[in-house]
Structures are given as structure tokens and as C-alpha cells.
Design a protein that fits this description.
This protein has about 350 residues and is an alpha/beta fold. It has helices spanning about 1-25, 60-65, 90-105, 120-130, 155-165, 255-265, 275-285, 305, 320-330, 335-345, and strands at about 30-35, 75-85, 110-115, 140, 175-180, 180-185, 190, 200, 210, 215-220, 245, 265-270, 285-290, 310. The chain binds aspartic acid. Pfam families: Asparaginase, Asparaginase_C. Keywords: Hydrolase, Signal.
């Protein structure tokens, strides 16, 4: 009898121990890179939905706030910044690219999640889409309501971002943007609403998929070159060339373009015409990209524009054309080569 119960105990522990150990070690490993923004911002009270400037939570506070993440992944953290996204600059972009590349190159790494203010989230997302060299998922996440707000959207967005980062279907999709249950492509997506939670929209193309409660559901893949198929490498760079955007409106003259050239711009993205100031800038070696202010649709290539040495931005909005032109200028000054890049990325 005793022997029998001993046998049962030995068998049970033989069966249970490896399973228990497996359950622990099998959790995928995700690194959370934090940069700040509304998702980390605190307001003076729970109804404070604007001007919430009572400090920001740390990466650890984000994790402690969401114990459910422990069931999804083993999460490590790295604070790259804790700022509003208007303060993200080349230094933080280059650090993010380098640190995410280093993390994803580790065999045990499954994916990366990046918290970011929504105001410029899509710029960082597109930059990483061009400079992270891995098929492993990189998911950008933010929130429209601060950490302290009633009915805040941050925790669900972060929970879904980790779900997307550990989903095998997310591999090779390029950098993803995760808010409001929607999975969007970094290249195609723009913040379209100043205040509502349904703000990130890929106007021409729609979302890639959804983080639904039953599963991560994808419906299409981005086709333009990104991440593991990108030719851009920022490993050795400590800065990026200056590129500015000149907005077009009735009676806009060349004053902004002249000022950008004086400030040292190596490239200027236009949202429309530009007149003599553009020619003067080109004569000084400044590269010009034609984008558009409408927020959707392609700027179609024309022989006339190409003959004038300008580049067209495909359907990249001006602020994303700026990112690609900055990276292009780290490799070449040749407008034909840069036009090829705009057609491929
Ligand atoms: N309102 C912005 C946000 O949603 C602030 C920022 O971009 O940092 O995070």
C-alpha cells in the first residue's frame, strides 16, 4: 500500500514537474521600450482628459498596473525617454533602432513593444519600419486618455500590443501600430483625430487586422519594403540629416523654404508648389520631395517633375516623406536613387 502510494507520488511529480517547469519557461520574452506620452501621463484627477501634466509613470508602474501581462509574456523593460512625443528627436530614434535591433538579435527574444505619445507615434513607427532588421514583431502603442483617467484606453492597448508581439502571425509584418483593437501598418497609418480613441487610420488601405478577444486576426500583409528587407542601417550614425517640411496654402511665399535652407536643411518636403525659392534651394544642393497636404492618395510621378530633379512621395504624407528622405540622404544625393527608394519603401 505504502509502496503503491509512493509510486503514485513519484509518477505524479515526474508528470507535473516538467509540465510546471515548461509552463514557466515557455512564456515568450518581450522587451517593453518606453518613451512616455499620454499612455504614461498622470492627471490631477480622474476626469482630467487634457493638460494632464502631473508627471508620468515608470515602465515598472505600467507593468504593475496590468498583472494580466504575466500570463502572456516574460517582460523586461528599457526606458529610452519619458517625454511628450513632440520631444522625440534623432537621438531617441537612433537609440530605439539600435536597442531594438540588439534585443531582437538575441535568440530568446520574441518581440518588442514601444510606448509612445500619439502625436508623432507614426513617425517613430515608420523610422523603425525602415531601420529594424528583424522579422520579429515590433509593436508601437499609445493611448488617447492618460494613465489616471476614467475609462482610460492605455491598459487594453498595452495588453493587446503584447498579444500582437507574441503572435506568430505578426512576424514579417513590419512595425505595427496597436490602439483601439486595430493592428495598423507603420507606413500607411496616420493619427486622424485630435481627441477620439479611434484615431489611427490607414486612410488609403485600412487596417491589417484586429486584436479580438478570441484571436489576433490578420487580413493582409504590407507589400512595400520594410524591416528585414530594408537597405537602411543606422548602427554607425549619431545624427541624421536635417529635412524640413514646407506647408502650402494660398499666398504662401518662399520665406519658409529660404529659412530652412539657411538653417542647414539638406532636404525639403513640399505639400504643393513652391516657386522660385525651390529652384534657389535646389541650386544649393537641397533635395526636394513633392508630397501633398490632403492626407490620402498618391503623388503620381511625372516626367516634368523628374526632369526638374524633384522626387515624388508616392502616398507618404509629408511628415513620413521627411523620415524616408532623411534616411535616403544617409546613403546618396542622387535624385534617381532616392526616387527608387520612395517607390520601394
Ligand atoms: N497627446 C499626445 C499623446 O497622445 C502627447 C504626446 O504625443 O506625447 O501621447
Amino acid at each position: 500500500m505504502i509502496r503503491r502510494s509512493l509510486l503514485v507520488a513519484v509518477l505524479a511529480s515526474a508528470l507535473l514537474t516538467p509540465l510546471g517547469a515548461y509552463a514557466q519557461t515557455a512564456l515568450p520574452k518581450v522587451k517593453l521600450f518606453t518613451t512616455g506620452g499620454t499612455i504614461q501621463s498622470k492627471g490631477a484627477h480622474r476626469q482630467k482628459l487634457m493638460e494632464y501634466s502631473d508627471g508620468r509613470v515608470t515602465p515598472q508602474e505600467l507593468l504593475d498596473d496590468l498583472p494580466e501581462l504575466k500570463d502572456l509574456a516574460e517582460i523586461s523593460t528599457m526606458e529610452v525617454a519619458n517625454v511628450g512625443s513632440g520631444n522625440i528627436a534623432a537621438e531617441q530614434l537612433l537609440t530605439l533602432a539600435r536597442e531594438i535591433n540588439a534585443w531582437l538579435a538575441r535568440p530568446e527574444a520574441t518581440g518588442a513593444v514601444v510606448t509612445h505619445g500619439t502625436a508623432t507615434l507614426e513617425e517613430t513607427a515608420y523610422f523603425l519600419n525602415l531601420t529594424v532588421h528583424s522579422q520579429k514583431p515590433v509593436v508601437m502603442v499609445g493611448a488617447m486618455r492618460p494613465f489616471t483617467a476614467v475609462s482610460r484606453d492605455g491598459p487594453m492597448n498595452l495588453y493587446n500590443a503584447v498579444r500582437v508581439a507574441v503572435a506568430p502571425q505578426s512576424r514579417g509584418m513590419g512595425v505595427l501600430i496597436m490602439l483601439n483593437d486595430e493592428i495598423n501598418a507603420a507606413r500607411d497609418t496616420t493619427k486622424t483625430n485630435t481627441y477620439r480613441v479611434e484615431t489611427f487610420v490607414a486612410r488609403d488601405l485600412g487596417p491589417l487586422g484586429f486584436a479580438d478577444s478570441d484571436r489576433i486576426a490578420y487580413y493582409r500583409r504590407p507589400l512595400y519594403r520594410h524591416t528585414y528587407r530594408s537597405e537602411f542601417n543606422v548602427d554607425q550614425l549619431s545624427t541624421l540629416p536635417r529635412v524640413d517640411v514646407a506647408y502650402t496654402y494660398q499666398e504662401a511665399d518662399g520665406a519658409a523654404i529660404d529659412a530652412f535652407v539657411t538653417a542647414g536643411a539638406k532636404g525639403i518636403v513640399l505639400t504643393g508648389g513652391g516657386g522660385d525659392a525651390v529652384k534657389a534651394a535646389q541650386n544649393k544642393g537641397v533635395l526636394i520631395v513633392n508630397s501633398d497636404r490632403k492626407g490620402a492618395g498618391r503623388v503620381v510621378e511625372s516626367e516634368k517633375v523628374a526632369a526638374s530633379g524633384r522626387i515624388t512621395s508616392d502616398n507618404l504624407p509629408p511628415h513620413k516623406a521627411r523620415i524616408l528622405l532623411r534616411l535616403a540622404l544617409t546613403k546618396t544625393q542622387d535624385p534617381k536613387q532616392i526616387q527608387r527608394m520612395f517607390n520601394e519603401y
